[in-house]
Amino acid sequence: MKIVADNTVPYLKGILEPIANVSYLNSCEFTPGNIKDADALIVRSIDKCTRELLEGSQVRLITTATIGYDHIDTRYCEEAGITWKNAPGCNAASVGQYVLSSLVAVALRKGETLRGKTIGIVGVGHVGSIVERLCEAMGMRILRNDPPRAERENSDGFVSLDTIAREADIITLHVPLTKEGRFATRHLANDTFFNQLERKPWFINSCRGAVHDTQALLQAKRNGKVSELIIDCWENEPDIDRELLAEATIATPHIAGFSADGKANGTRMCLEHIQHHFGLKIEKIQEVIPPAPDNEWIDLDRYPSHRIEQAILSTFNPVVIDRALRNFPERFEWFRAHYDHPREFKAYRTIHMRQEERGQLYQIGFQW
């Protein structure tokens, strides 16, 4: 059996070798000639699985270690009898950690508290549900927008985008990028949406760049309709808009889902798809685990104030990667490929907690 894998998929090398001939390629090496004899591909979002790549190959399975799958020509795959699988939810907790840490960083910088603020969550699937739990832990009011779920569930627990535009202090996007159909999300955040905003909200995109219209977002920021920008996903990556970079409060190179835990989850799910599809047993799959953090103990007594906020930032602080991207925006993909993947909240233990802090820390995900 022959498998071709992106060489930046973590924790993979040595796992499949007992049962397969594995070739590790960088994204520019994914060519028709290099993959034509492969039975399966293990890819990331930068590996474009198009008709041009796949036609005439013997590929029968494409697994992507990502939630998104817009880099796979699913229509062609269905025509050609190629099964494709993504990794839904693999990095949901990681994106939640990114959103919460970024909100905390902005709030502390502004001398404000998140408690009592209203956050509008657009898309309440794997990621949005975790963001909801984390924001509830911080005492925030939640507005949920998810038209497909609202229709399926016939539920009154969701609100319209108009309501979010009218009432939210913070708006965060967690939808897939879709270009067709009743619930298409491309340029969901457009001129019409931004012109409806009433509370000068903070705006976060950590899902897909094209869910917002860059020019409309720039105009909204410049005319004061949006007060703070947290941008992890950009249109036309890696050639990101330098004007939007300059306007952003926090700017990162599409790494919100790049925790070590999320990466391990994505790799493990790819392996599980291979097992199922080919009827194999991958004995070493249990070895796909992230390394322990350098220091798993967080001593809350180190912090004279904002103890929980500081604990959150000690697991991931967006300032470091933000500064790097601003200095060298042309290295967008390099930063992604060489990112120092953080561990999630669950990898850390807090000590010297006060009684009133225990429930909040537990809801966020910390151990003790």
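Second entry:
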Amino acid sequence: MVFVDLETTGGTATVDRITEVGIVELNEDGEVREWSSLVNPQTPIPGFIQGLTGITDAMVAQAPTFAELADEILSRLHGRLFVAHNARFDYGFLKNEFKRLGLDFKAPVLCTVKLSRHLFPQHRKHNLDALVERHQLHMPARHRALADASVLWQFWQVLQAQVPPQQLHQAVGDLTGHSSWPIHLDPALLDELPERHGVYLFHGDNDLPLYIGKANNLRQRVLSHFSADHRAAKEMSLSQQVRRIDWIEAPGEMGALLKEAQLIKQWQPTHNRRLRRSSELCTWRLLPWQRGDEAGLKPELAWARDLDWGRQQEVYGLFGSQRDALKTLREIAETSGLCLVTLGLEKAPVGRPCFAHQLRQCSGACVGQESVADHSERLRRVLTDWQVRTWPYDGAVKVREGQAWHVLDAWAYLGTAQDEAGVQALLAEGRPTFDKDTYKILVSRLPGMEVLPA
């Protein structure tokens, strides 16, 4: 393990620079070594930061630059668990400094803020000052790198004395994402996974996706699949089969949902059942119907492939199979006292009451006690909640999310573009097949979003 603390010129790793590095190394044999150095940031230190840390421009003027210290620092961090307070801050600064030198620094990371919260949830504060006070740690010089790193080493000693070894080991495993990290996966992925919206793909031996999921935080969601808290058969099976993880970032949650639905229909992963393609997608549409002199409406089963979805009037329900469609319509009819014979769901001799009417469960459309027109109107009324909405725009549209545009047409998702040229390129590709999951996403999320003609 290495306990690390940095002092910097500011809080932005891509812009600000390191002014001091403090490292406490804990070796496997229990030996503890301390090392620190001031760093010339090659840029002025703001007055506020000088007052906070006590590190002035004069103090770092003759100090080595990070480039001159890089080999020394890298040798001390290599192959060790990187431990820091608010670890992503320190880790991010070091990663950016190494990146400027053309080096790709990666290490497993443990944040002591998260560790303290995990082990002592009864306490509200977990900043470094709170840890010093709560655990009676020695703090000789606050906001100096080696002193702060030494406090973390002291905190670790307290944990070893107060927390059962198995519990401490489990907590570290959970928080570093290593507790059940599949041995077939490159540990470097832990550092590369972004904390952004997107879609992730788990691949198996034959490189086909095993599972596709969406996430508001890709890193967090992927790690959750392999967390020690998840021991379901599905998660264990994924853990054993996964060989590679890919991801696609999205501008927001709607973009992630749309891309997930699109990719699952495209690849049909074995571990995705809810959103897999149904080639039998069908619906009920109400068509004019005549019985003698009476005019009315009768339901007819229609297949998705034969309809102009989004612009089709009076279609009801999105069913994965003919069986589901028939079952649902029968249940609606029986609940509402509609005639199964008049609906075409059962057969009976003309003029003879249907079986349901004999049980007083049909209003009598089969024997003329209810007119065809009244029966049709009741049918339309009870199907209202199932009606598929008509596309409310004249044509294709683009919807702003973050810095990108989602291109949509008749409830179909054409793709996401970063600029107008990309929008036009997606429109030129044509509209994809209607998908009920995309429809449900858009119906619930389009209201209130910025929608413009494409």
